[in-house]
Predict the structure of BppU N-terminal domain-containing protein.
Amino acid sequence: MKAVKKIEISVLHKRITPIVYAMQGDTGREIECTVVDWDIPAGVAARVWVVKPSKKVVYNDCRIADKSVFVPMTNQTLAEPGGAICMIEFVSGEDVVSSFSFNLYVYESASGDGIESKNESTVLEGMFEALGQDAIKALDAAKAEVHNVQTAAAESIKNIETIGKTQIDAIKEAGGGVEQALSNYFALRRNGLVFTTKIYKYTTSTSPVGVKMNANENMVCEPSIGRRKGRDDYEQYGLFHHFTCNFSVDENGFNHVDALEGQTGFTKYGKVQVGEVTMSAWFGIEDTAEAVLYHYSDSQTELTPHPMKESINPDGTLSPFMIHAKYVAGDIEGAPYSSKGLTPANGCQAEEAKDPVSYTGMITYMHKLGGHYCGTTSWDLFYRQLMMIIKYATTHSQSIMAGCSSYSYQYANLVAETGVTRVVVTKTQAANFVVGSYVSIGEMGESTNKDRYYAYMHNLAYSVKILKIENVDDVNAAIYVDALEAFDTTLTTCISAMPWHSGSTDEVAGSDGSLVSNTNGKFAYKIQGIESGIGAHEVLSNVVMYIVTGEDGNPARDVYVCQDASMLSSTIATVRTSYKKAIAQVPYTAASWKYITEETTDTDLGIMIPTGVGGGSATGFADGLYTDEGTSGQREWIVMGHLNYGGNAGFWALLASNGWSIADWSIISGVSPNGTRGEWQATA
């Protein structure tokens, strides 16, 4: 009896890495590998290399039939649970041709009966002792002679990113490029563990604090403050490893890692897209009578049946990695880039801005980069929401990292001056500002409206950095800025706090945290390396709300999600026919802020929708929902909150009152590689 799994492998062209799943200890399995781009010559021998999670090696003969190689799944091949790297080697005399690798994932036997994992070779029995961490590099060396490879330094939580990059560099040098290196790196670190957080329903408990379960039990995560690194137990698991990269999206909607930080060609600056790449993942939402359980894993399990949407390629296959934009987008010569050191692209009327950052405006704006680019997607947001729930076991995100949500200071200049780069305010007022943050300075004249939307609020200096704050006398202090040109001030000159520029959290140690304080409401933060809460809303580029009459007679909002960025539309009829309608509606709040008590997750679309309100700023989901009184039309999905949102802000905050073409100083977005995602179909 043989259970045969058929896969396609390649020799001449790198393709999507196949994954084979098996059970530990089985003896009746075999893999039929069909070579799709090379004719196997007569008389060659085929052998399989298998590098197990412990780095022990299997090197066995295989049977060839026509264009296929049959790989035996021996006891030793399936001895260890976890991810292994496999490669077929064709040998004729001194000539060796190797296939691109495929991945083998071995699930732990339910019986718990396993055998000791050892090296195994039916070709060169007894020649091996151990392979070190640089598995793929060792495979190349073995083409001439099997060598023992140096043992890599033990991975530690303190330097996991540095070691990880070194290992990926080594794998990349063996051939196949950075994406193959990442695929192999992540494959070796998949272990099938399920990280779970139970969040009680509001009717059971109003507390936002959940309970960590399964592999998540007893795990601790503390956000960093500046260079003081917080404890992060998750760094030991490949599921949470992430690497800063440059990314791109091709003409078919597939996203690509072009370079990793530290490698030749990588940059954070200019006309590039900067992201964080992590392994593809699976999730599950378990709804019980008293609670909702959120499950997250590196593998498909009974608890995690759904691949993260970012893991699904446009053709429905699964990618070995996911990419999320690291920064919000800034404008360079009329096009958006998620790169470092940029003023967030926004739609205020300052001469330096006027960027079309709204749901409809971003269709054309993002497509300047290519037909499958778009702004921040619902999946980019869902990933961050899920990381907050899993790592911190709370739905009160501001209790962990508040973001720049209470930093909306605006003050009149007190001393008229000529040819300066400063304004003078009281010492008390000056103490509210943060050196290194950003402000605009404008000459208001006879205007009284301080809304940052207007050009006159920025006409002396637009979104410039505070360089220093110095006392002028016993009462007043001067705020100095890095304006390009000196300016004149009057008693109607006004200084306004502005959102942080991209890259402001790069000096924060570790994966999560803020510069000076995580909770004072003045600083942006990062989670899994992704910069968030910079002092402005993010508008989702692939979500539209359409107002309908709800069951209670009030104007509820249907939610539509686009899965193909090339089909983004500003015609509601097209939206309703070509987008996917979510399973839940946004409830009516009658032009008032209501705190969210319930979120419903559409697992197929990967979006969390507020479906219950009536809580407080520290209960339930602890964030605000606002819907206007409109009874028809479309609305854009605006999240997170801006400078003066206070307790309403956070990962679940939703402003659902703006028409879908509204742009403003407070509305920004990222450049997402995830605008086009396929429909995954489970296969046997």
